[in-house]
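To close the chapter, one final illustration. This time we ask the reader to focus less on the individual chains and more on the assembly as a whole: which components sit near each other, and how the overall shape emerges from the parts.
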Amino acid sequence: MMCREATERMTEAMEGRLSGLTKASFHLHLGMCAWCRRHKKQLETLVETLHSVPAPSVTPEARTQALAAFRARQKNSP
Amino acid sequence: VDDSGEAALLARLRAGDESTFARVFEEHHPMLVRLALAFVKNPSVAEDVAQDTWVAAMDALDTFEARSSFKTWIARIAINRAKTRAVRDGRNVSWSADEGEGTESRDETRFNGWGIWRTRPTHWDETPEGFALRREVREAILAGLASLPDAQRAVVTMRDLEGFDSEEVCNALDLSESNQRVLLHRGRSRLRAVLERALMGDSRP
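The assembled structure is written out below.
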């Protein structure tokens, strides 16, 4: 396996979907290739960065609007 | 939330308990807005979609069968409503796993004829937490995410922003496991390149 294929298989590897000979070749290549190791590390860094991006905060208006809808529903139900 | 915890929560919602609703709203509303944003792109429209989602979810509460978690169930409602809204607003939501294939081949220039790196990945020396805290880096990633093809953006948003697992994403987006993985790979690969460019720009004196 060369760098091109190794980079194409990185998500499969991170998802634990590689098996058999492909898995062995992938790990053999990564063991030898610092650039592919770096590339994989960067994908992992990207994923963790995305995880750490804070969600937009709930505005008071959004909260009020939703609660009003929830109350209206209670009134209308039998 | 474990199963019994979720059952109790649903019972309180059905009984009209406002403090339970307020708690569930705080927990899931930001996620619904970000999911909607993956389809409609306009933040105020995404907020509308998320609000509509709560109304629809509370109306459908009695039909919720707990075959999925509450989070997955309400996420799916938001996604369906966001898709409908995007189509109504004249956006052509593309769901082909092959979309963006053309630009993908641009990556080919990174490798030589032997399939070995020609343009090597640059060195990054910051932690993910550090990146997420830097506004310009965060904005570059979010702009990159916004510019991904629709299906890639939806998958990356669900998997990496919101932390759904691949099975939940396949269910919510009606994708096969392999298509989901291809879309995830392409989306992440592009965002890695976006991040790399942002960091290179950043290092200029």
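DSSP finds five helices and no strands in chain A. Residues 34-52 of chain A form the longest helix (19 residues). With these observations in hand, you are ready for the problems at the end of the chapter.
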